[in-house]
Amino acid sequence: MSQYQENATIIRFEQLTDTNIRLTLQTEEIAAAAKPGQFVMIRTGKSKDPLLRRPFSIHQTSSSGRIQILFKVTGRGTALLAHCKEGETLSVFGPLGHGFHIDPAKAACLIGGGMGVAPMLFLAKRICQMKKDTDTDLIILGGRNRSEIEPLLADFHFLDIGVMVATDDGSYGRHGLVTDVMKTISLPDNCTVYTCGPHLMMKEVFRQCRKKKIECQVSVESVMACGMGACLGCNMVAKNSRYVHVCSDGPVFNAEDLEWNL
Amino acid sequence: MSQYQENATIIRFEQLTDTNIRLTLQTEEIAAAAKPGQFVMIRTGKSKDPLLRRPFSIHQTSSSGRIQILFKVTGRGTALLAHCKEGETLSVFGPLGHGFHIDPAKAACLIGGGMGVAPMLFLAKRICQMKKDTDTDLIILGGRNRSEIEPLLADFHFLDIGVMVATDDGSYGRHGLVTDVMKTISLPDNCTVYTCGPHLMMKEVFRQCRKKKIECQVSVESVMACGMGACLGCNMVAKNSRYVHVCSDGPVFNAEDLEWNL
Amino acid sequence: MEFVEDRDPFPDLRVKIGTLELQNPVLTASGTFGYAREFANLVNLYRLGGVVVKGISLFPRPGNPPPRIIETSCGMLNAIGLENVGVDRFITEKMPYLLGIDTPVIVNILGDSIEEYKHLTEKLTVVPGVSAIEVNISCPNVKKGGVAFGSDPDMAAAVTSVVKENTHLPVIVKLSPNVTDISQIAWAVQQAGADAVSLINTLVGMAVDLKTKRPRLANIIGGLSGPAIKPVALRMVYQVARSVSIPVIGIGGIETAEDALEFMLAGATAVQIGTANFINPRASEEVVEGITDYVIREKLHSVREMIGALDTE
Amino acid sequence: MEFVEDRDPFPDLRVKIGTLELQNPVLTASGTFGYAREFANLVNLYRLGGVVVKGISLFPRPGNPPPRIIETSCGMLNAIGLENVGVDRFITEKMPYLLGIDTPVIVNILGDSIEEYKHLTEKLTVVPGVSAIEVNISCPNVKKGGVAFGSDPDMAAAVTSVVKENTHLPVIVKLSPNVTDISQIAWAVQQAGADAVSLINTLVGMAVDLKTKRPRLANIIGGLSGPAIKPVALRMVYQVARSVSIPVIGIGGIETAEDALEFMLAGATAVQIGTANFINPRASEEVVEGITDYVIREKLHSVREMIGALDTE
Ligand SMILES: Cc1cc2nc3c(=O)[nH]c(=O)nc-3n(C[C@H](O)[C@H](O)[C@H](O)COP(=O)(O)OP(=O)(O)OC[C@H]3O[C@@H](n4cnc5c(N)ncnc54)[C@H](O)[C@@H]3O)c2cc1C
Ligand SMILES: Cc1cc2nc3c(=O)[nH]c(=O)nc-3n(C[C@H](O)[C@H](O)[C@H](O)COP(=O)(O)OP(=O)(O)OC[C@H]3O[C@@H](n4cnc5c(N)ncnc54)[C@H](O)[C@@H]3O)c2cc1C
Ligand SMILES: Cc1cc2nc3c(=O)[nH]c(=O)nc-3n(C[C@H](O)[C@H](O)[C@H](O)COP(=O)(O)O)c2cc1C
Ligand SMILES: Cc1cc2nc3c(=O)[nH]c(=O)nc-3n(C[C@H](O)[C@H](O)[C@H](O)COP(=O)(O)O)c2cc1C
Ligand code: FES
Ligand code: FES
Predict the structure, then answer these.
(1) For the segment C145-203, what is each residue's pLDDT rounded down to a tens digit?
(2) How many angstroms does the Cα of residue A241 sit away from the middle of ligand 4?
(3) In Å, how far are A47, A83, B34, B253, C278 from B46, measured between CA atoms?
(4) Are A18 and A75 in contact (CB under 8 A)?
(5) Residues in chain B whose Cβ is within 8 Å of chain A
(6) What is the predicted ipTM?
(7) Ligand 3 — pocket residues by CB below 6 A?
(8) I need a labelling partner for C172 at 20 to 30 A (CA). Which of A44, C45, D21, D99 fits?
(9) Which residue segments constitute the domains of chain C, with CATH numbers given?
(10) pTM of structure
């Protein structure tokens, strides 16, 4: 696993909503090495404050050496990123972590909520590359409202996998949560569910999977300093009260291996 | 003496040379209250690093509520300022300090070197307002080369005071230092010399003034935290080894009152 | 300049430091607010909980040679060297103005010996308008080989006792963070009669100029303040508040109402705004405004509900 | 990834820590560089002066519950809780790789009692590839009521002695900054036989979440590191270097060659790069490159000319 620290030029800055932004970054080596579910650590400015890099999932890569990230402004670091301009550079470090494990022999159901949609595009694209037949596959995406989810769909619609959408306020797709949608569909037995989103959402996704004895891979978050297994700061409670480190053991885990307090 | 903290919009950003920048800022109250020789303290960014404001002389004010500052990139704070854009805002605090004392009955000779040119424009304009006759007055400006000094001259040429220029490399005006020029002219006895620039330049200006028994007002620099007499951090050695505080006792002093180790 | 409207309902922000009642928990820190007058046209002084003035010694002190300050990452070092006009000129030149500002004035004092603290207290205690004395014990004890009063529990207690014996005013002892166990010092000064402790004073630090190969401060070492030290200050306030029963005044890197309320959660009854005054001269009043908003928004009966309310399970 | 060309003339960057010769004064700080392997494809490990690995205890430790880290102004707090695999697994699982990296490996050890330090030393001293031992004395002494070894000169000396008695390797004692007089501790460990001291470990700090009214770290308190603490570290290095005759290794907020050289001017023989590794994983090698450039540009015969060369008149 190779990691690179690149001074990435911002190729495109897209303000999707008030708070949601998509950045396209020129990062030759990271783009070439990245796998779905991996993430990058980005310095949000040149100053020592904020000091630490911020982790973001890789939304998609391109053969022209670019990656995209999709993020929401939630604090100081992301607010700074929201002020960067096309043509400027950002220090990007990655790709980091263990991504999703794709078994081409199995059906796939991808469930992304909020910013958890980010890694799902990259994953879906890779699944389409690896599998001949994606008829039994499905993508469920959720967001607060139409404006949060609609701009993201174009890229998904290019793919050969069916997409279902749910919004909290019903302004687009089904009214409700992705987990409500999940309940209404019958997943094939030999299926893997891949999910990323708010903790409570992933917990419910896992609960449903466990009931149906379906494999469930989750991409989780934690605070991070190094993103590469050096600081041991990003631990999370796993089964049997053991600790795992999100950046190096994850961020994708088999949901079975984590502690969900179900 | 009233001071104001304003969120000033950057009206104009002029990159005069590689390192020299002129900013025009909308600061109604500061512009209205400012006197020549006073300065403002500017936050160079929104982050806590760099933490402290940076002091800059007021280059000129306008009746439309604007001030200009003229600065050179010398470190992290000024580098940040060099990246700001028109339309953005800066927190500006001022006007601060004691400015030049103008006696309309006396002839005036203004000598500015490098960024010490900054306060001279404002001073010259005020002198022109206060005095009927500026025939015996004179401005001597110095810089490294043509590109450093030429863009500044337009504003001075509007005034009714003669301007002489010296450059270190002879690419514009006289070849040499402002103090070389000063030697070649004979100042009237009843004259005040106003000067701002590098320490060694001001020292030489004062030396020549003292020899000729001419009053000399200097605008000096020191590191500052508060700019308003609260931290006592900006002290400087004055006559008889006493300390003065540059921000509140100055930045303009009668050169006689300071210690020059001549 | 912003104007501040009166609010309704009027929230209860009052806190008590010994017998001193403050209308709100926001004070200014010694050495960062001059003698208050400097801020008069920027801050509505009467809206502050109180002001702590620049440290005063028995005799005038010229302070250290320049440079005295240098910026560091998210902080600054100062080596002012306790420049001040001395207690007599303070009383004649500065107090008349301070008498009129309608906010409690706390006088910060410092000395080289127990006797100096004694004389300072005697002089100040009879001055109208002095609401409390804050004793800076970070100064070197000249008689004891220059060890700071604040780094030894017995010396700290001795200074506290002598000040207490010579005044009826509330006595706040300002603690140095440059010690192994600040709770021990806090305990010692409480036992010696202190009405409150304030902390932290600056951390001793240094900066070097690679170009000149010289220290950046003429005094070589100086005191570190600002946001950089906030985590250390918060920890010490938390520790001290659990060790003593007198009020604790939190100081160190406080810039916003949020910062101030964090210190109160950790156990502070009041806070002081220091370095932030340089960056935003209106910081102290804005912290008052922010705390007011918070108390209203969170529907607290009083800001005192915040004191020590940190939930550590 | 940048490639580094060989330079001519080849500057002399060598420094000595006890009997250990380092090709240059740049080490990585314990707990911030993993077991070196994590950085292998980012840093040319063989170009470093050496690596100090994550602190090792006698038995494996799970460390503290999450959250363990939180960013502060120009710094970070960590409460990893000394998570590590224990000395036995360290030797079998980590040392084989470290043996091959062609740079000195310094093992940082920690214990709850003098006996633990003794056993750790015995085990490590016979392991091929261990170049020196760095003794972390910031840990609580369980038998003495949890007071940190590093805050008491006698306890610090006792740990040092027992480690020295059980190894032929150079022994570096890593000092805690959370003390009144760090020179006194440094002196005590020098007298007890330490070959060098390294400082500073983290400052104890805390962060509070106003929204949840809880500490931001599960452990409540943690260690502050990063640029915020550099002024304190520099001051302590300066003080300690003037008090002891053994080499001092400077640590605290070092990000660039300029920072490193400032520590050397203040008296450090070598430096360690800590938190900076997180922000720029190539920081350690870039510091080596920057020092190399400096020594060439300034035409120094050796980087050793910088040690303690601060001009204080
Ligand atoms: C592996 C991974 C992938 C991620 N992918 C994405 C993504 O694709 N898009 C996206 O919008 N966000 C993503 N995040 C979350 C993102 O990292 C945080 O939103 C961001 O770090 C917040 O930074 P800030 O400075 O704006 O907020 P801060 O001011 O630092 O804090 C605001 C809030 O964010 C939380 N937070 C701060 N730092 C982190 C951190 N390092 N990790 C997690 N939470 C943090 C804080 O606890 C706080 O609640 C991901 C996080 C991880 C761990
Ligand atoms: C009253 C006054 C008026 C000034 N007017 C102007 C002006 O009109 N135009 C202009 O270009 N510059 C002016 N200066 C100087 C200007 O303030 C500094 O160049 C600026 O603060 C450097 O900031 P920095 O962050 O870029 O540099 P830093 O990275 O902080 O330091 C770079 C260099 O600048 C010096 N410096 C840093 N801070 C200060 C400070 N507060 N005061 C003085 N020197 C400092 C440092 O010692 C160092 O040598 C003035 C200074 C004073 C005191
Ligand atoms: C320039 C300056 C001068 C100071 N002078 C004094 C003083 O005279 N007496 C005192 O007790 N503390 C003094 N202090 C310490 C502050 O009151 C305060 O304890 C410290 O700066 C930490 O708070 P802060 O981080 O909010 O600044 C001074 C601090 C600064 C920055
Ligand atoms: C995440 C983290 C883990 C650390 N673990 C250890 C450790 O195991 N042993 C030790 O002696 N110091 C440890 N330290 C302290 C560092 O080695 C160093 O002394 C300190 O961080 C100051 O340097 P810096 O500011 O460059 O980070 C750790 C520091 C951090 C940030
Ligand atoms: S973030 Fe440092 S180990 Fe995971
Ligand atoms: S800069 Fe604070 S007193 Fe002058």
Answers:
(1) 778 899 999 999 999 999 999 999 999 999 999 999 999 999 999 999 999 999 999 99
(2) 26
(3) 10, 12, 25, 33, 15
(4) no
(5) 45, 47-50, 80
(6) 0.95
(7) B 231, 233; C 29-32, 54-55, 78, 80, 82, 108, 136, 174, 201-202, 225-226, 229, 251-254, 274-276
(8) C45
(9) 15-63+81-202+226-306 (3.20.20.70)
(10) 0.96
